[in-house]
Amino acid sequence: MNALDTNILIYAHDSRDPQKQQRAAKLIASLTDGVLLWQVACEYLAASRKLEPFGYSFSHARQDIRDLRRLWTTQLPSWGVLDRASDLISTHKLSFWDAMIVAACLELGVARLYTEDFGGQPHIDGLEIVNPFAENFG
Questions:
Q1: Residue 137 belongs to some domain of the structure
Q2: What pLDDT, on the 0 to 100 scale, is given for residue 136?
Q3: What is the pLDDT of residues 38-55, one digit of tens each?
Q4: Are 61 and 44 contacting, i.e. CB atoms less than 8 angstroms apart?
Q5: Is 135 a member of any domain?
Q6: C-alpha dist (Å) from residue 34 to 43, 58, 68
Q7: Considering its fold, how many domains does the chain have in total?
Q8: According to the model, what pLDDT value does residue 75 have?
Q9: Does a structural domain hold residue 123?
Q10: What CATH number should be reported for the domain holding residue 91?
Q11: What pLDDT does 15 receive?
Q12: Which backbone phi and psi does 32 adopt, to 5 degrees?
């Protein structure tokens, strides 16, 4: 299974960087085994409001989440994710919210997380971290 960080969903609808927009949209469309993390869905809905001046509405973002929920597995939060995130903060020096995303992936058995964050950490506790905007991304 594969998961996306919020930034990938945002870039797919942000026309200010056409190259990132195209890569993000292509990646999202290619994932047949995607996981929609609860936190990512919430962050996306909140962050999408910043795209309103560029023609992307909150109602579009809500529909995107509805569409992804139909296509992908949804990972809801649990107390185990919170506990594991606390450990990840200490061991990997992650921010709280990044640790929550990684912990949710680990709890569900996600193999790969696509994000432009976590620079320099290609793996965290067995989770592969892939930046789809890196030059070496296939």
A1: no
A2: 65
A3: 999 999 999 999 988 988
A4: yes
A5: no
A6: 17, 22, 9
A7: 1
A8: 87
A9: yes
A10: 3.40.50.1010
A11: 86
A12: -95, -15
The SS3 of residue 126 is coil
pLDDT digits 0-9 by tens, 92-101: 888 899 999 9
Angle (CA) 36-138-123 rounded to 5° is: 55
Below-50 pLDDT ranges, the chain: none
- Specify if 136 maps to a domain: no
- Decide if 7 contacts 43 (C-beta within 8 A): no
Specify whether the CB–CB gap between 45 and 10 falls below 8 A. Answer: no
Residue 98: which residues within 8 A CB-CB, separation 6 or more? Answer: 117, 118
* Neighbour order of strands in the sheet with 34-37: 73-75, 34-37, 2-4, 112-114, 127-130, 123-124
Alpha-helical segments (H) within 1-138: 6-11, 18-30, 38-47, 58-71, 79-92, 96-108
Q: By residue range, what is the domain housing residue 46?
A: 2-130
